[in-house]
Input
Amino acid sequence: MKVHSGARVAVAGAGALGSAAALRLARAGFAVTVFDPAPLGANASGVAAGMLAPVSEALFDPASRDHLPLMRRARDLWPAFAEALGLEIVRAGVRIEGSRAWRDQVGSRLNDLGLSADEAIAEDWRIESRLALEALRAAAAAAGARFEATTVESFAPGALRLADGRTEAFDVLVLATGPGARDGRLAPETRALAPIKGQILRTAALDADQMVVRGEGVYLAPGKTLAVGATMETGRDDLAPDASATQALRAAARALRPDLDLDRAQVEVGVRVTTPDGLPLVGWSRAPGVLLAVGARRNGWLLAPLVADMVAAYLNGDNPGPDAAAMRARRFEEPEGDKQERAGE
Ligand SMILES: Cc1cc2nc3c(=O)[nH]c(=O)nc-3n(C[C@H](O)[C@H](O)[C@H](O)COP(=O)(O)OP(=O)(O)OC[C@H]3O[C@@H](n4cnc5c(N)ncnc54)[C@H](O)[C@@H]3O)c2cc1C
Output
């Protein structure tokens, strides 16, 4: 489905995916309004450690093991994306630390991925996620996008209903609601999404080391503060800090850095949302006029430029690229035989 240029596009959700899509679409000449009731950064995108880490994710998240080439393609879009936003990418890489036995295990997993078992991963980068959200919002606004602090309740082409009682005429709804809309009302495909609560500790760094450290059951990601992450609490979507869930994380961090002051660390909570295969839903929904950009699991920042490009391609009627079939929005609803045929939708 190609949408006429200048069409009115509503984006539900101002996280990494919604904001990146809004910027891309505003620059492409669509009339974009982003709706989100939450303050900037009060979502998983604002809590995230900001790692752009294809290799680490393929190593440490079983759901991402098969997605290394796709994640590398997404990462490779970042230099131009960040430059246009004036955003710094920190390329200090990742160091593996821990017991000999564990490092050996990681080494053999690296070998399985076709990589050498060096103890540093140079090709994983990071950004400051809150700065990125601010930069995206400013750039999207400068390109003409409007931002409104309200919830999208329902959509049909020509009639977007908002929680503040208004109904407005939009041609398309880009659904980038993170864990916020999983009941199928805005798009039936969202029923395939499951939440994963993540708690992360933020504390002062002990030194000026810029490398991310990956240890057994924990990462230490430097930045404005040191991020010690993160819990993976499958099936939970509440935002309550929960000391019992962070106990293992604290113990793993202390094993690496006994001097870290974790008792006074700030706990931040975000909810990721995942599909059964770990890749987001990107593309046209069965619901008329709804384009999905949701379900990025642990990789919303890594995937944001790629997803934004794909969203723009779908709206412009262009080829959405080599990753469109793997992320196709309706892949959990249809019999196997239909998938190939619809890959270019
Ligand atoms: C602890 C933690 C660490 C992470 N670390 C990393 C990392 O290092 N690198 C990485 O790439 N990813 C990381 N992630 C994952 C990443 O944060 C997510 O994949 C990403 O933020 C998803 O972005 P999003 O835009 O899809 O959703 P979100 O950031 O969840 O934003 C969705 C927005 O939609 C809004 N919304 C919901 N419903 C509606 C509605 N009906 N109408 C309007 N608005 C609505 C919400 O208010 C919210 O602001 C981490 C996540 C967590 C929790």
In short: The longest helix spans residues 300-316. The two ends are 7 Å apart (CA to CA). The mean pLDDT is 95.
